[in-house]
């Protein structure tokens, strides 16, 4: 794995994390415990911070970045990801905030200032535009993202199960 500092700040990882050797992590990134980062994931916490919660997995080819501070956005937009989040293959997260127990489908893009509340499915290929808020307990699809329907109980349970599955899988890779 390639870990690089930026302005003497280096990525930090919690306990029992797996990061594939092809991943590239730069700058002010903090990961919780049991995080898994899969092949070709790039994360760059240079002009703002990236924070990733416990038991979150970021799948192959995804990109995580941030937005710098400016006069129009004095704090810029960090990227904050909660606990038990599954980020599907080839997603792009840019200066957004994700709560807990979220599944972001393959190829989804979540842009600056967007907020995804807890317990949400973001459909594959979805585009979440800047500053949009996705309300807890729903499936969102389309480009731009639109609320499709409430989640079923089985889908809500799957959000945690997906994260648990990746905790088990990354443990296999560690061992």
Automatic annotation (TrEMBL):
Alphabetical list of Pfam families matching this protein: Hexapep_2
UniProt-listed InterPro entries: Hexapep, LbH_gamma_CA-like, Transf_Hexapept/Carb_Anhydrase, Trimer_LpxA-like_sf
Superkingdom classification of source: Bacteria
Gene3D superfamilies: Hexapeptide repeat proteins (2.160.10.10)
Protein name: Gamma carbonic anhydrase family protein
Organism annotation: Saliniradius amylolyticus
Upper classification of the organism: Bacteria, Pseudomonadati, Pseudomonadota, Gammaproteobacteria, Alteromonadales
């Amino acid at each position: 794995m390639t870990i690089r500092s930026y302005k003497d700040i280096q990525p930090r990882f919690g306990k029992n994390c797996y990061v594939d050797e092809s991943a590239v992590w730069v700058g002010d990134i903090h990961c919780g415990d049991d995080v898994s980062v899969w092949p070709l994931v790039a994360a760059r916490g240079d002009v703002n911070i990236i924070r990733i919660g416990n038991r979150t997995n970021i799948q192959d080819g995804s990109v995580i970045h941030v937005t710098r501070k400016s006069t129009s956005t004095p704090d810029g937009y960090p990227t904050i990801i909660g606990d038990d989040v599954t980020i599907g293959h080839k997603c792009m997260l840019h200066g957004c905030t994700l709560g807990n127990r979220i599944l972001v489908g393959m190829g989804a893009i979540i842009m600056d200032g967007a907020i995804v509340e807890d317990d949400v499915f973001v459909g594959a290929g979805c585009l979440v535009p800047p500053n949009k808020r996705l309300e807890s307990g729903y499936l969102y699809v389309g480009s731009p993202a639109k609320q499709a329907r409430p989640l079923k109980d089985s889908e809500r349970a799957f959000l945690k199960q997906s994260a648990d599955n990746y905790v088990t899988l990354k443990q296999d890779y560690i061992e």
